[in-house]
Amino acid sequence: MARSNCRVLVVEDDGLLRDELSAGLAAHGFDVIGAGDGEDGARQATEGSPDVVLLDIEMPVLDGLRLAQVVQALAPEADLVMMSGHPYLCRAASDLLGPGVAVLAKPFAFDDLLSRLGDRHLPAPG
């Protein structure tokens, strides 16, 4: 996979935040897929072959913790980045899903998200 083709699935039920994250990632060269709830996120994770799944913990239909477990089972090669406005949910995500899962507490700076994606996911310059 070329670094400039890194596909990020953004699963967030807040449409405005999902759109802002998607636009910011796309502006940085990422191929972005969006989903508005956990059920759609599970479908997109299996059909869209994302390299990274950025997901909210609190969502209707299928919450982020359960979606993360589904993604780990169906698309284990995808990296997970969880986000929540509740610090206790961030700790729970780390405890339940293991140390390989990045967690961001909302609100966060966009640069913090980019640093969580790490060098292997950042698109090559130019």
From TrEMBL:
Record InterPro entries: Bact_response_regulator, CheY-like_superfamily, Sig_transdc_resp-reg_receiver
Protein's name in the database: Response regulatory domain-containing protein
Organism domain of life: Bacteria
UniProt domain Response regulatory: residue ranges: 7-121
Signal peptide: none
GO biological process, one term: phosphorelay signal transduction system
Pfam families from the UniProt entry: Response_reg (PF00072)
CDD domains assigned: REC (cd00156)
SMART domains xref list: REC
UniProt KW keywords: Phosphoprotein
